[in-house]
């Protein structure tokens, strides 16, 4: 589904990604771990198409299409979703209106009719239920005054609504208490299928107890220095990252 | 002939035409104001208060300064300029002349009618003598000019303990029957003790002919009165507006003026609040969204004279193309005005490199036990926020519009008339060039 080949990227003349290779197939869950500053968040931003990052070499291919020239919204229309570590507050635009706009813009870009209001509401209701989100929450302004946990849960809500092919969860576990973490993980697990893939970017193995990865990769200084199965996460938890440097 | 000369030579003829109101001292007021204008002329960029706003380009036209009656307008053709889903009183003028056909006035329980009538009829003499031109500036020559030619406009007098059950719309249309027209409407609003009124004012040109409006509004809020005043400034790009609004408040009153500036060529708002008692609240809100070579200048003054009063000022500006914004927010806290809370915020976004904002907060505080703050920001759209929206599939243009809308949102939330809020929201979406498929 997603192939990353020899990816190099920099921001403001600072090289951050220095040759990343990653192959993600439909139905898989990948975890990318690594210490601060290793390039984890940069990698997710580059995949999602953030314009401040310049790809200097290599490529990102989604279903045989090079993403290089595509704007962030075009990548989203093709099924890439990234949950943000620090979601932005949009006063005056409700969660419901925001997600409606996002879904209908995506449908429009893919040559589909807007989703009828009735179907939209039904889907919103079901997804909110799945993630144990209070209905009142949906008529609040997007992320405005949300707690850290609410913001993260709202990110997962959007993911569930948009049904991406590839979901990248960037530090989704930070700021979540254990109950919220379980709800989020449960939501992700229910949405997982053999047609989509999930990339979890995290510091800690905590979230991986609930969303079990098929592969774990360790990022250090802009490169993947080790890959393995889910047991690698436990090893990292026990030993730290130093032994890999 | 220069406009100043033309106005000076027109004054005598004007005085003759309104000679019926000699019963009031309005004649003296006009003459004094005329002399002041004659001596000072139009403000120029040499005046500190007009440093960033030049009237030169709008004064060069050969304006007709005496409106002629005659042009009729069908309601259906101008319906969209009114709030029409709710009941309202209407005071409507066409090319400066009162239109009884489009208006819906009343004298039952309160007066919602014409200033010309109030100036002429003896029964209003006491009110006129007590209020008329008592708070309008005697120093600003452009206000004096209006006073000199003051004759017609809205007259609203609400006695005490009265809640006016529906909003009052004051609308000035210009039809383009003159190639260049200058209008000088004069509004007088008196709200008695414990009374409550909502007013929406609009100046609307119906063609691309050149129009210059120099309007003066005096608002008196009695003890515990609540006055909500909304100004919709979304005129044609050939129309310019100089709005001079003066508000005087008695104790415990709450007066709010909300200004929405989206259209027009040049718009200057002189907005001044004067306190005459304790526990007064003054609210000043504004949203400006302009482009092309438009200019909007918000010049505000809040004069805190008594203790325990508060003022809240919030102005948001979005400037595209080669447009210019000016914000001058003066707050005076006099020595007696202890325990004053005065907050001022002015946030601006420049969308294009050619756009300019001149912002000047001006706090003069002579009391020592006060809470005063001001914040002024000038910036661009936040790239991270833009990326966030785009990463959810929202195209760049729509994402920018959403962020701009969010930026202006807190000033928008101050609108207390639901239909007006919806209308302004749609205007903003239209102004930002997007259809998001929902009412923002």
Characterize the structure shown.
The complex is a heterodimer of chains A (245) and B (440). Chain A is built from 8 helices and 12 strands. Chain A is an alpha/beta fold and 245 residues long. Chain A has one domain: Rossmann fold, CATH 3.40.50.300. In chain A, the strands form 3 sheets. Chain A has a 6-stranded mixed β-sheet with strand order 6-9-10-3-11-12, with helices on both faces. In chain A, strands 2-1-4-5 form a 4-stranded antiparallel β-sheet. Chain A has a two-stranded antiparallel sheet with strand order 7-8. In chain A, helix 3 runs parallel beside helix 6 and helix 6 runs parallel beside helix 7. Chain A is globular and about 55 Å long. The two termini of chain A are 30 Å apart. In chain B, helix 2 packs across helix 7 and helix 8 packs across helix 9. In chain B, strands 2-1-5-8-10-12-14-16-18-20 form a 10-stranded mixed β-sheet, with helices on one face. In chain B, strands 3, 4, 6, 7, 9, 11, 13, 15, 17 and 19 form a 10-stranded mixed β-sheet that branches. Chain B has 3 domains: 268 residues, no CATH class; 104 residues, no CATH class; 54 residues, no CATH class. Chain B starts with a helix and ends in a 9-residue tail after the last helix. The radius of gyration of chain B is 21 Å and the shape is globular. The longest helix of chain B has 17 residues. With 440 residues, chain B is α/β, with parallel strands linked by helices. In chain B, strand 1 and strand 2 form a beta hairpin. At the A-B interface, helix 2, strand 7 and helix 3 of A face helix 8 and helix 9 of B.
Instruction: Describe the oligomeric state of these chains in a short phrase.
Output: heterodimer
The total tally of domains of chain A equals: 1
Strand order of the largest sheet of chain B: 2-1-5-8-10-12-14-16-18-20
- Shape annotation of chain A: globular
Q: Give the count of helical stretches of chain B.
A: 10
Query: How many domains make up the 3D coordinates of chain B?
Result: 3
CATH C-level label of chain A: Alpha Beta
* Radius of gyration based on Cα positions of chain A: 18 Å
**Tell me about the biggest sheet of chain A?**
6 strands, mixed
Uncertain ranges of chain B: none
Q: What Rg of chain B do the Cα atoms give?
A: 21 Å
Order of helices and strands of chain A: EEEHEEHEEHHHEHEHEEEH
Could you tell me the strand content of chain B as a percent range?
35-45%
The chain-level structural class of chain A is: alpha/beta
Biggest chain pair contact, residues each? A-B, 36 and 28 residues
Please give the CATH architecture of chain A.
3-Layer(aba) Sandwich
Largest sheet: spatial strand order of chain A: 6-9-10-3-11-12
Helix coverage percent of chain A: 25-40%
- Roughly what is the average pLDDT of chain B, rounded to an integer? 94
């Amino acid at each position: 589904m997603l192939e990353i080949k020899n990816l190099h990227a920099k921001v403001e003349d600072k090289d951050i990604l220095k040759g990343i290779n990653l192959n993600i197939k439909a139905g898989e869950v990948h975890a990318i771990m690594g210490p601060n500053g290793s390039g984890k968040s940069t990698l997710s931003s580059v995949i999602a198409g953030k314009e401040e990052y310049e790809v200097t070499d290599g490529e990102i291919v989604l279903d045989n299409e090079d993403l290089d020239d595509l704007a962030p919204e075009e990548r989203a229309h093709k099924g890439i979703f990234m949950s943000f570590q620090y979601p932005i507050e949009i006063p005056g635009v409700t969660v419901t209106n925001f997600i409606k706009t996002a879904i209908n813009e995506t449908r429009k870009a893919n040559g589909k009719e807007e989703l009828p209001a009735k179907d939209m509401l039904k889907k919103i209701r079901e997804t909110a239920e799945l993630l144990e989100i209070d209905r009142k929450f949906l008529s609040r302004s997007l992320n405005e005054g949300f707690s850290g946990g609410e913001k993260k849960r709202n990110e997962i809500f959007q993911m569930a609504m948009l049904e991406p092919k590839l979901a990248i969860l960037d530090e989704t576990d930070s700021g979540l208490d254990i109950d919220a973490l379980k709800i989020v993980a449960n939501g992700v697990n229910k949405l997982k299928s053999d047609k989509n893939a999930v990339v979890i970017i995290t510091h800690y193995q905590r979230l991986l107890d609930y969303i079990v990865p098929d592969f774990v990769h360790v990022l250090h200084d802009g490169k993947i220095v080790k890959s393995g199965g889910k047991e690698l996460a436990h090893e990292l938890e026990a030993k730290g990252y130093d032994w890999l440097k | 002939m220069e406009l100043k000369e033309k106005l000076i030579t027109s004054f005598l003829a004007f005085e003759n035409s309104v000679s019926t109101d000699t019963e009031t001292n309005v004649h003296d007021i006009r003459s004094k104001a005329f002399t002041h204008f004659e001596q000072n002329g139009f403000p120029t960029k040499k005046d500190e208060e007009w440093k960033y706003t030049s009237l030169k380009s709008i004064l060069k036209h050969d304006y007709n300064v005496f409106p002629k009656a005659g042009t009729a307008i069908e309601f259906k053709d101008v319906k969209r300029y009114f709030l029409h889903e709710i009941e309202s009183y209407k005071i409507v003028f066409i090319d400066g002349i009162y239109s009884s056909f489009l208006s819906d006035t009343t004298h039952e329980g309160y007066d919602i009618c014409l200033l010309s009538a109030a100036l002429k009829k003896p029964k209003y003499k006491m009110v006129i003598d007590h209020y008329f031109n008592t708070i309008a500036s005697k120093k600003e020559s452009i206000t004096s000019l209006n006073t000199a030619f003051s004759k017609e406009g809205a007259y609203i007098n609400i006695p005490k303990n009265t809640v006016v059950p529906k909003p009052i719309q004051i609308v000035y249309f210009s039809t383009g029957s003159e190639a260049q027209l200058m209008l000088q409407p004069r509004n007088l609003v008196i709200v008695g003790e414990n009374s409550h009124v909502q007013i929406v004012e609009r100046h609307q040109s119906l063609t691309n002919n050149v129009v210059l409006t120099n309007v003066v509004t005096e608002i008196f809020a009695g003890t515990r009165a609540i006055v909500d005043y909304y100004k919709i400034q979304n005129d044609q790009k050939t129309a310019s507006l100089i709005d001079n609004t003066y508000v005087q408040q008695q104790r415990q009153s709450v007066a709010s003026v909300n200004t929405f500036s989206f259209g027009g060529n040049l718009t200057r708002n002189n907005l001044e609040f004067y306190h005459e008692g304790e526990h007064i609240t003054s609210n000043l809100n504004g949203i400006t969204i302009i482009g092309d070579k438009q200019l909007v200048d918000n010049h505000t003054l809040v004069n805190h004279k008594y203790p325990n009063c508060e003022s809240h000022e919030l102005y948001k500006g979005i400037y595209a193309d080669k447009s210019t914004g000016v914000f001058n927010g003066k707050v005076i806290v006099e020595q007696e005005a202890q325990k004053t809370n005065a907050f001022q915020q002015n946030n601006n976004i420049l969308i294009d490199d050619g756009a300019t904002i001149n912002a000047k907060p001006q706090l003069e505080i002579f009391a020592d036990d006060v809470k005063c703050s001001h914040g002024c920001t000038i910036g661009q759209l936040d790239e991270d926020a833009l990326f966030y929206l785009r990463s959810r599939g929202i195209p760049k243009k729509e994402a920018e519009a959403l962020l701009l809308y969010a930026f202006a949102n807190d000033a928008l939330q101050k609108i207390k008339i639901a239909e007006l809020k919806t209308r302004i929201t749609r205007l903003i979406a239209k102004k930002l060039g997007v259809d998001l498929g929902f009412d923002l």
